Amino acid sequence: MSFTVAIDGPAAAGKGTISRAVAAEFGFAHLDTGLLYRAVGAKGGDPVQAALTLTPQDLARDDLRSMAAGQAASRVAVIPEVRAALTAFQRRFAAQEPGAVLDGRDIGTVICPGAEVKLYVTASAEVRAHRRWLELGGDAARVLAEVRERDDRDMNRAEAPLRPAEDAVVIDTSELDIDQAVALAFEVIRQRLSN
Ligand code: CDP
Ligand code: CDP
């Protein structure tokens, strides 16, 4: 029996932080699916070919966390053939025992619609941009503009747009610190594990 936790939401909402804590607490494997799209965007050339031939080395590049890599990821992520090329790997990962947590944009809606737990982690654009700015520095107004641009592209694309699954539990972290957000996620998962 495997147990899948799907965590979706916009940039810098706290998905990765919550995912890593969940993986450690429950002994689950964790896949940051954004890294797949970042690697495809960074590889250059034909994005569909890049997605079909993605290697572990592509995922280990040290420039994947930059704002530019996030923008490039969201541009290739609108291409249906790119998304299709990455689907089987994500679903296989989700099916492993004893469980897996995947974070991204379309995990609860498209990749794992049958996930045992679905969380939609969000926060105001201002709070999220401030968090990204603390991590990466740069011009604060520009970071906010880029976060908004990426939100807009992710939410309004035709294929697998970012939105909460109907059965997702929404966690707004705008006024929560990491410990509070993680505690809420643990509570939802424990409740589901116990029935
Ligand atoms: O994975 P995602 O882009 O959604 O966000 P993250 O990488 O988990 O979090 C982005 C930044 O916000 C990190 O530096 C976290 O430490 C911070 N954070 C926070 O300050 N408060 C929270 N409740 C969650 C995350
Ligand atoms: O860490 P952050 O939330 O800023 O971004 P990310 O999760 O690394 O995702 C980068 C970009 O990849 C997103 O803005 C989406 O355009 C795309 N993505 C996606 O389309 N579907 C996913 N499951 C994960 C990421």
UniProtKB/TrEMBL annotation:
Keyword Transferase: yes
Main subcellular location of this protein, as a coarse class: cytoplasm
Gene3D superfamilies for this protein: P-loop containing nucleotide triphosphate hydrolases
Keywords from the UniProt entry: ATP-binding, Cytoplasm, Kinase, Nucleotide-binding, Transferase
Top-rank lineage group of the source organism: Bacteria
EC annotation from Swiss-Prot or TrEMBL: 2.7.4.25
Enzyme class at the top of the EC tree: transferase
Gene Ontology cellular component list: cytoplasm
Start and end residues of each Cytidylate kinase domain: 5-40, 61-190
UniProt-recorded Gene Ontology molecular function terms: ATP binding; dCMP kinase activity
Positions annotated to bind ATP: G9, P10, A11, A12, A13, G14, K15, G16, T17
One of the GO biological process terms: pyrimidine nucleotide metabolic process
Location of the protein in the cell: Cytoplasm
Catalyzed chemical reaction(s): dCMP + ATP = dCDP + ADP; CMP + ATP = CDP + ADP
Sequence similarity: Belongs to the cytidylate kinase family. Type 1 subfamily.
Protein name: Cytidylate kinase
Gene: cmk
